[in-house]
């Protein structure tokens, strides 16, 4: 396991504040990488829409893997913290869910992220559907449960974020990284 990696994943439940937390970390001066899935959905909505997650989950997951690999390659030398809104791991878990292809096999050729992964728990009070997030809360919770299990099974150390202000969440993340 590459516990020395400075590439840190923010994962978890859809609509639970990952992007907002990523923005706060960017505001504090850290490098950040936006969610591959949202970028793909925006692109697909402008095009033929064949790889939308609600049209073809396997095609969407495959595209998310490609984008996440590119993000990881472009993310720098790891000399400072870089925070990822979702990751290659999330995409591999989505592909496994859609096709049965084992996530650990998909991930085997790629470098690992930092061992500590921060997960946003389901938070119905702030959950919103929009044009790019069309699934409901029940599906979001099921995805969260898959990710929580998968990160542990893949040898990562998932830590669930508290339901608090974005500033407190960012401080929580940074303090938990410094503990290591």
Automatic annotation (TrEMBL):
Cross-referenced InterPro entries: NadR/Ttd14_AAA_dom, P-loop_NTPase
Pfam families according to UniProt: AAA_28
NadR/Ttd14 AAA domain span: 8-169
Gene3D superfamilies (UniProt xref): P-loop containing nucleotide triphosphate hydrolases (3.40.50.300)
Domain of life according to the entry: Bacteria
Protein name, per record: AAA family ATPase
Species in which this protein is naturally found: Sphingomonas suaedae
Phylogenetic classification of the source organism: Bacteria, Pseudomonadati, Pseudomonadota, Alphaproteobacteria, Sphingomonadales
């Amino acid at each position: 396991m590459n516990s020395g990696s400075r590439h840190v994943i923010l994962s978890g439940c859809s609509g639970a504040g990952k992007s907002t937390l990523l923005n706060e970390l960017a505001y504090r001066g850290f490098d950040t990488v936006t969610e591959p899935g949202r970028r793909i959905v925006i692109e697909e909505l402008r095009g033929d829409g064949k790889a939308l997650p609600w049209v073809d989950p396997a095609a969407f997951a495959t595209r998310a893997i490609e984008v996440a690999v590119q993000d990881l390659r472009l993310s720098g030398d790891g000399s400072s913290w870089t925070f990822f809104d979702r990751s290659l791991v999330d995409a591999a878990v989505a592909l496994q869910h859609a096709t049965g292809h084992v996530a650990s096999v998909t991930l085997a050729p790629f470098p690992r992220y930092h061992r500590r992964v921060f997960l946003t728990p389901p938070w119905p009070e702030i959950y919103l559907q929009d044009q790019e997030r069309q699934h409901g809360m029940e599906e979001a919770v099921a995805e969260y449960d898959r990710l929580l299990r998968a990160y542990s099974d893949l040898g990562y150390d998932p830590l669930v974020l508290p339901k608090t202000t974005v500033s407190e969440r960012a401080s929580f993340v940074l303090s938990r990284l410094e503990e290591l």
